[in-house]
Description:
- The structure holds two protein chains of two kinds.
- By secondary structure, chain A is of the alpha+beta class.
- Chain A has 16 helices and 22 strands.
- The radius of gyration of chain A is 24 Å and the shape is globular.
- Chain B folds into two domains: 91 residues, no CATH class; 71 residues, CATH 2.40.50.100.
- The chains are: A alpha+beta, B mainly beta.
Amino acid sequence: MKITKILIANRGEIAIRIMKTATKLKIKTVAVRTAAEPNAMYLSFADEIFDYSEESTEIPVFLDIEKLIEIALTTGADAIHPGYGFLAENAYFADKCLDNKISFIGPSPDAIYKMGNKTIARKIALAHNIPVAMGSEGNISNEEEAIAVAEKIGYPVIIKAASGGGGRGMRIVRKSEEMEKLFVIASKEAEKAFKDPSVFIEKYIENPKHIEFQILGDKKGNVIHLGERECSIQRKHQKLLEEAPSGALDDRLREIMGSTAVRIAKAVGYYSAGTVEFLLDSEKNFYFMEMNTRIQVEHPVTEVITGIDLIEQQIRIAKGEELKIRQEDIKLSGWAIECRINAEDVQAGFAPDPGKIDKLSLPSGPNIRIDTGVQAGSSIVPNYDSMIAKLIVSGKNRKEAIKNCKMALDKVWIKGTKTTLPFFRMLVRNQKFQDGDFTTAFIEKDLEKYYYNSEYEEMLAAWLATKLFVEENLQETSIQIDFENGKELSPWLLNKRINQF
Amino acid sequence: MNNLQIKKLYALSSEKRKFRFALPLRNKIRIGKRDYVVSLRSDEKYGTYIFWKNRKYPVEIVRSRQNKYEILFNDISYIFTVETPFSLQRMKVLNSKKGRAENESVKAPMPGKLIDICVREGSEILRGQPLVILEAMKMQNEIQSPVNGTVIKVLARPNSNVMKDDILVEIKVH
């Protein structure tokens, strides 16, 4: 099957990431301009822009299956790349593409469906002797049933959305009194997010590490793994920092978990790039959690240590090419860390802090890769996720990667919104993090403070407050005069004040 | 205000740390035996920043009201009240009279939609108990009570949209 033009059914950094590889492969790209971000940076990377910014729509176009198919047909795109989020794991969408003779750059609708439904995925894993945590046979329909299952397998348990992902519709229950409330919340959240209220229950593995394996499979049935990613640094099941490889695995465990990941992928006839997620407990027992049937946000760390362009592989596989890489060709070299720099207020429990990015300056260098979809002047809009940039830093080994990361973090300059930078600045200085001694509970349990400030920063801020007070109250000159330049009150200050009304 | 009588100012942080600055305010801060120059600058590339010990730190004045300033310094917010020696003295006297019982206003930490209200007026609540469920950026967030107390007012309405810092619930602290 030929691919000559790809419709990017996504936005932001991942749209740019896909378009860069497509351009490298001499494939044309189409991006969609939306009303929410009519001047977004990703548009400038496309060969062609489909303007959808005049339409007022209830749902984002990236979730509108009929419209996306129509755009592909109108623009003559013979393939669609869904990126991550939105329709990336929607089996119906993948099926619709195929119906219209459009290549869906991802796995088969059947694989998406089976892995997307967590209760089905669980059954497949059990049928193939792949370890899963104890849990309910299938979906749970009410609180009473939930309590009965939980009593059988023992608290704590975790309620998960059957069609879930990304932490939504997920709740940990520690005692039966909490079940009623949390069951309803999880189920409502699942319905809202996935249009499917069904949930199931699993034994909650205390303090595990989140280890996931990158998979590549072709349409001929060849499946390989590209090693693991360590994604235990997460908050409310949202990943913040990922690294590859993981310090918790040795070659033997990597081989066992990797081949298990390949086995489950083969069980559903998987092709394209995919990720098999495991929980690893303190005794190094691992449990299959779920498979993500798409490219992931954290894919760059794997690309850095394997030298393989995963988007390129996805496109080649979609064209029907056979995998040229064999398992024995995969060599992991060096260490890579990704920090998700989001517009979030670390001091307010990582609450999203959307707004305009006034100034942006990102570091570059041989050990640094930046994947971003914003530039100075861009806005982080509440309609979409809060990502500003992914900072991917590498080194010969973990210690060096952390050291390089620490330096790179100090070179990131963002003004306009609060960001997760202070969190990462703290993390790279944390002894337990440096020692690799952390689990998914790290942020909630092991951290007293979510941000780092050097010794004198608060004092300097106090000096600035005092300076402003002096200028506003104690000086006879007009308060309209700016600090030392003698200019009028600077626009950034005025803007901030105006925005409060 | 008569500036001739004031010899120094205090910046009090919200965590009750006190920083003293002599007047007239100098562009130098003494650390140990050395003075370091601190300057507030602004340019096209970086916006406004403080330059200190050869390094730039991004700064923003998030809000200022009377003597209260919220400063964003290197991505971290600090809230200070700037006091003169006299106002500091007066504040101490007032604080000692006021005692501890106060009302706590729980505000929306982010813009979003209220999915559920978990308390009503008169509810006795404990610290950490969910007050409302706020949906923002694809996630449902439990807004929990920061204190033990009694709910005296519920301003939040189910299925309504709220802005950041809108008051949701007022609690009389026990």
